[in-house]
Amino acid sequence: MPKEAREIIVRALKQYQQSLCSSMDAMIVHGGENIDLDPLKYEHFDTIGLIGIFNEEDAELEVRIDSDARMSFASRHNVDFPLWDGVPY
């Protein structure tokens, strides 16, 4: 996966991370003592790890998709499967 695509994913994950933090803060402010924040805390922790993976310059990340899924990708998602320069088909 090229650096540019990874950077997009990192930006999206950071936005999601901010949303998780805002949600946790809002829950605490509005009577959070009876609210289970653990699921959001785990997602926040996992998001930190994913950001690290996609920021890791020495990692080679691959997206694998079988031929049937690839053939139906455009019709299911209304966009062509991404092809990146220098990345084998």
Please tell me about this protein's structure.
This protein is mainly alpha-helical and 89 residues long. It has a domain at 3-59. It has 3 helices and no strands. It has helices at 3-29, 38-55, 67-77. Helix 1 (3-29) runs antiparallel to helix 2 (38-55). The longest helix has 27 residues, at 3-29. The mean pLDDT is 86.
Fill in the keyword field for this structure.
89 residues; mainly alpha; 3 helices
Short description:
By secondary structure, the protein is mostly helical. The chain is built from three helices and no strands. The protein has a domain at 3-59.
Q: How much beta, percentage-wise? A: under 5%
Quantity of strands, as a count: 0
Give the overall average pLDDT.
86
Largest sheet: none
- Total DSSP helices: 3
Return the structural class.
mainly alpha
Helical amount: 55-70%
List the helices and strands and how they pair.
Layout (H helix, E strand, L loop, with lengths): L2 H27 L8 H18 L11 H11 L12
Helix pairs in contact: 1-2
